[in-house]
Specification:
By secondary structure, the chain is α+β, with helices and mostly antiparallel strands. It has six helices and nine strands. The protein starts with a strand and ends in a 23-residue tail after the last strand.
Length: 231
């Protein structure tokens, strides 16, 4: 069964986005006597602007798992993905949900415009907010899928996307063939980057009750601790 979400059905946790932005950018505690005051003002102004610019949408499809080998995942309808860590992470899945989430191109266009006008801090902060906002939307999509399958006595893995661990980003093409990104206005470049940029594609595994436990993340399988997308 296909699932398509938009608007109020796909929630962005703006408070969480703010907290994570402050943490990742290492913005110090607020103190009216320091420059942190200006940074917090910039963050809050950009968050307000971002709220008017995002248009979250998501879609997903179900595929039966044919086999999971040492470094290959084969799904029905000829869909094949590769990666030793990916196969390990999805081991035991009987089904998979391929998904796509986007918040549109409003934030990236606005951030680029600010940069061109010389407002580099606001442009940078707005762009970072966009990246965190689409992650929040993807987290919401994952949680909605988890609730759906838990109600059926099944468990859902944490999401994983091309580019994470050893899943080649080139396999975005296989995802696009399976789900048709254009359904929610997303396309792929020749280098397999998504347009709009603030989009996330990927997959979760569906297994028996208790098989997948929501703990940790696919990043636990990767040793690249300096990655800014680590979660």
């Amino acid at each position: 069964m296909d699932i398509t979400l938009s608007g109020k059905d796909l929630v962005i946790d703006w408070d969480g986005v703010r907290d994570l932005l402050i943490k990742k950018e290492r913005i110090g505690p607020f103190d009216k006597n320091t420059s942190a005051k200006a940074l917090y003002a910039c963050v809050d102004a950009c968050l307000k602007k971002a709220g008017d610019l995002v248009h979250p949408e998501a879609c997903s499809i179900k595929r039966r798992v044919i086999s999971i080998g040492r470094n290959t995942i084969k799904l029905e309808k000829g869909t094949v993905f590769t990666g030793k860590r990916l196969a390990l992470f999805l081991k035991g899945a009987r089904e998979a949900r391929i998904f796509l989430v986007t918040i549109g191109d409003g934030i990236e266009h606005a951030a680029t415009s600010l940069m061109h006008k010389g407002e580099h801090l606001h442009g940078y902060i707005l762009d970072r907010i966009g990246s965190l906002a689409v992650e929040s939307a993807a987290e919401n999509m994952e949680n909605l899928l988890r609730k759906k399958y838990e109600a059926k006595g099944k468990s859902v893995s944490i999401r994983v996307s091309p580019g994470y661990c050893d899943w080649p980003v080139e396999e975005q093409e296989a995802l696009e063939r399976a789900i048709d990104f254009s359904r929610i206005g997303v396309s792929l470049t020749k280098s397999c980057m998504m347009v709009p940029k603030k989009s996330i594609s990927g997959m979760v595994g569906i297994g028996p009750k208790g098989h997948f436990v929501k703990a940790g993340s696919p990043c636990s399988l990767c040793k690249t601790s300096s990655c800014s997308y680590r979660r």
